[in-house]
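subagent[fold] <- orchestrator: predict structure for attached chain, return tokens only, no commentary.
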Amino acid sequence: MNYVITIARGFGSGGKYIGKELSKRLGIPCYDSKILKIASNASGINKNLFHQVDERLRKNKFIKKLTQASKRDYVVGPTERQFTSDDNLYHIQKEIIENLADTQSCIIIGKCANHILRERDNVVSVYIEAPRKDCVESIKNLLGVTDEEAHSMIQKTDKYRADYYEYYTRGENWTNPVLYDMTLNSARVGRDQCVDLIIDYLNIKFGMEK
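subagent[fold] -> orchestrator:
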């Protein structure tokens, strides 16, 4: 049986690190920005357009009513006026995520993957967060920025990820713990221990061996 781990994460919490370590430990691929490249290759749409809407809404998008989000629940073709719209770019990625879940074991970071795959029994969804001070230290060490710059980056990134998630899920809050199998504080638990816990949970849920 193939299985999928989805990881939602606060900026600076170590979610990407945890996903990459799970990939090494489990011997399965981890998809983050790779999905944007796959979507570009599959659709023929410039990859820069996918990067512009990578877990974010383009300017003024969120002022639309949430009930208008994703009226079409399918991909439209290149002859359609909406071919490069935000919604169509989302649905192209959504189809890729669904196909990955159908065909292989993997890890998917972000991209509303926990929502897209919410009805599937072969999915474990995890939310990773940490206190702001720990996220700030992580971003400072990773990017070489100041405290103030790190605070600003975290605030902006978490805000646009939250807006994106709310828009495409028609109003859900991405930090709501009931949307996930597990919610982990990477500062308290430790990032490598988060990897251990997720693998333990896979064993519990799917009867897998480490």
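orchestrator: received. Logging for downstream: The mean pLDDT is 90. The longest helix spans residues 147-168.
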